[in-house]
Predict the structure.
Amino acid sequence: MTNVGEERKYLVVGALGLVGRAVVEALEDQDGCEVVAVSRRQPDFPTRAGFLQLDLTDREACRQQLGRLSGVTHIVYAALYEKPDLIAGWRDDEQVETNTRMLANVLDFVVPARHFTLLQGTKAYGAHLAPMKLPGKESDPRHPGANFYWSQEDLVREASAGAGWTFSIMRPQIVCGHALGSPMNMVLAIGVHAAVLRELGQPLRFPGRGGFVTEATDARLLARAILWAGSEPRCAGETFNITNGDILDWGALFPEFADHFQMPSAAPEPLQLSEAMPKHSAVWDRTVARHGLVPYSMDQLIGASWQFADAVFGYHGGQTTLLSAIKARQFGFTDCIDTATMFREHFKALQARKVLPP
């Protein structure tokens, strides 16, 4: 484990996404730890991290900005490129090439003295291509078909071989946290959907189709797992599934969401959010004005998350996706959180920040 008082310098790449932001926030109170954050935008929250605005597809810019960094002990790579057509993009050769090139544009100019964390997810088990074997285990073989996870993992393994630094790979599922415009942000998708329906005087219904269960991962929990793996020598070269520790049934949770937002609940009714919700952007604007919220448009907040919501809610047909988190527990990471509690905490935090209405 990291010794108390041992100096560390974290480079968090993709620092304004769901995972990167949670890591930056988790490092805020760490003594003896300098934080350098990389993103396309400046942060929309107070932080002591030093931010570099950088497009990871611009190799020369990466050379100039990352090449001058020194003393980096840990790198957390949480950057991600997604296509406008989110779900179809998961099978796209250009998406694979772009994500691989972005990682190369980091590793070619800066490496950690100690540890590198790479993010993957349920697509490692082929869930985007076909029903996955249950539960997904880290020891499962790579699935056939396009996936930038494999080319990125191969890059990290090759770069770390004999280089004096180690790496770990984290595989969460449906990461939930705070991020502006993330393409896969279920907290904001649910919160904005509920706010719009409340403004319209309608009840909250589960808009997907049932018959399956899944899991979620609190971004804060994942950040703690990342810091743990980066300081635990036994995690070198290992892959870990990281989830909240319970089972997620969306249909069962929606009445709890309705209760949180103080609105009536009604029976599930399938609705394609990616088609329906953008038509209510003016209703969202009216909600923002009525409650004096931070003046973000619906598109600024949600990005492609309506598409992601349709997928995880099973609007086009759902499948059970469960990951075994036994390995992480065996290695010493036993953190967990009730998923309903997680959503309530994130909703409250966004309401306190005046991103969602009270």
In short: The two ends are 42 Å apart (CA to CA). The chain has a mean pLDDT of 95. The chain is about 40% helix and 10% strand.
